[in-house]
Amino acid sequence: MKKDLFSKKANIYEKDDKRVSNVDNIANAISNNVELDKNMSLMDFGSGTGLLLERIAPYVRKITGIDISSSMNSELIKKKESLPCELDVLEIDMELESLKENFDGIISSMTMHHIKDIDSLFVKFYSNIRAGGFLAISDLDLEDGSFHTEDTGVHHFGFDREAIAEAAKKAKFQNVKVIDASIVEKPHGKYPVFLLTATKNV
Question: Which CATH number fits the domain 17-199, given the four candidates 3.10.20.30, 3.40.50.150, 3.20.20.10, 3.90.950.20?
Answer without folding.
Answer: 3.40.50.150
